[in-house]
């Protein structure tokens, strides 16, 4: 289940878009999505990290739902705005930020530019036919995008467009945005990533992604070893005598929590590995195509020279 699950594509009589109304927010977001301690603390922590690490001046929360992140960012001195397609969600925005949150679709151009756009668990709700326009509109309105979209949650009925991380990276790369492989934004979700508009030479891009891939591969291997060790420890505890049950149960609970934490980290690392590996392959393929084009052009230069000389001779004769 997504953390922030409002889609940003308009609903019509002809399509089959889910209804993101009161029932959805009460029952389909895990913990009821409403003004409660869980969600206020969740978005408060994200706002703290964004201010600390990214220092934005203006922010758009694309798919803002009830405006909790907008509210948290404005409380921390950031000029934040939100847009969402759900009339119900926008109707629940707190009065303190109501004027900064509006009803709208990412399928339409955004009204201004922002220092940073944040989109948390939104793109997977947008139908594949509308996703390219949504991505183009996001990229046209900023030079930095903090994006989180689940890589594997196919079980939710409203997830119309779950994609592997590298496919989102490719779509953003076509708009001139590359993943910041040195920036950790897992405070949003384990698979969240920051994308920046970049204009760099191909060797530099390949080098950045190769370094990130090797680093994340090592981290994934270490996390997997820790996970296997924790599972082995749990198996040993379950085989202990009955008389030690109270202490064992407490130890088992701690082990289960550690396993869940490690699994979440592993999911995030594996997602980044897929994106990095896909990007390296894409960059190398692009380099090969450029080299082939260069060879074809160089092969045609002598022919152009002969034709040019012939044309000069004909002109002189004329």
3D architecture notes:
By secondary structure, the protein is an alpha/beta fold. The protein folds into two domains: 22-199, Vaccinia Virus protein VP39 (Rossmann fold); 205-286. Helices cover 52% and strands 10% of the residues. It is built from eight helices and seven strands, in the order ααβαβαββαβαββαα. It has helices at 22-27, 37-54, 68-75, 87-91, 131-140, 165-173, 202-238, 245-317; strands at 58-62, 79-84, 101-103, 116-120, 144-148, 177-179, 193-197. Strands 3-2-1-4-5-7-6 form a seven-stranded mixed β-sheet. Strand 4, helix 5 and strand 5 (144-148) form a beta-alpha-beta unit. Helix 7 runs antiparallel to helix 8. It is globular, with a radius of gyration of 25 Å.
List the keywords:
52% helix; Rossmann fold; 318 residues; 7 strands; 10% strand; 8 helices; globular; 2 domains; seven-stranded mixed beta sheet; alpha/beta
Provide a short characterization of the protein structure.
The chain has helices at residues 22-27, 37-54, 68-75, 87-91, 131-140, 165-173, 202-238, 245-317; strands at 58-62, 79-84, 101-103, 116-120, 144-148, 177-179, 193-197.
In the CATH hierarchy, what is the class of the largest domain? Alpha Beta
Strand order of the largest sheet: 3-2-1-4-5-7-6
- Which homologous superfamily in CATH is the superfamily of the largest domain? Vaccinia Virus protein VP39
Uncertain segments are 7-15
Our Rg estimate from Cα atoms comes to: 25 Å
Distance from N terminus to C terminus (CA atoms, Å) equals: 79 Å
Q: CATH topology of the largest domain, anyone?
A: Rossmann fold
Overall SS class: alpha/beta
Tally of separate domains:
2
- Average of pLDDT: 81
What is the share of helical residues?
A: 40-55%
């Amino acid at each position: 289940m997504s953390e922030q699950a409002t889609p940003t594509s308009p609903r019509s009589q002809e399509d089959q878009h889910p209804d993101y109304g009161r029932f959805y927010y009460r029952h389909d977001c895990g913990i009821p999505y409403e003004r409660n301690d869980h969600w206020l603390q969740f978005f408060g922590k994200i706002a703290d990290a964004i201010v600390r690490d990214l220092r934005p001046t203006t922010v758009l929360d694309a798919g803002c739902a009830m405006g909790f992140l907008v509210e948290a960012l404005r409380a921390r001195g950031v000029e934040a705005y939100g847009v969402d397609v759900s009339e119900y969600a926008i109707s629940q925005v707190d009065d303190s930020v109501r004027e900064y949150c509006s009803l709208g679709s990412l399928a339409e151009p955004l009204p201004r530019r922002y220092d940073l756009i944040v989109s948390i668990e939104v793109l997977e709700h947008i139908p594949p036919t509308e996703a390219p326009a949504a991505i183009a509109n996001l990229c046209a309105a900023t030079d930095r995008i903090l994006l989180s979209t689940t890589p594997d949650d196919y079980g939710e009925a409203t997830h119309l467009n779950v994609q592997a991380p590298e496919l989102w990276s490719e779509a953003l790369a076509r708009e001139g945005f590359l993943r910041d492989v040195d920036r950790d934004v897992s405070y949003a979700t384990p698979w969240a990533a920051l994308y920046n508009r970049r204009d760099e030479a191909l060797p530099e891009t390949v080098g950045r992604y190769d370094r990130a891939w090797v680093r994340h591969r090592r981290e994934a291997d270490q996390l997997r070893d820790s996970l296997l060790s924790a599972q082995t420890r749990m198996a040993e505890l379950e085989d202990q005598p009955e008389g030690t049950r109270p202490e064992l149960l407490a130890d088992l609970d701690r082990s289960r929590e550690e396993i869940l934490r490690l699994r979440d980290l592993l999911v995030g690392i594996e997602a980044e590995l897929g994106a990095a590996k896909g990007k390296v392959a894409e960059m190398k393929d692009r380099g090969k195509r450029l080299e082939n084009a260069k060879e074809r052009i160089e092969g045609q230069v002598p022919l152009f020279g002969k034709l040019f000389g012939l044309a000069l001779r004909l002109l002189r004769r004329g």
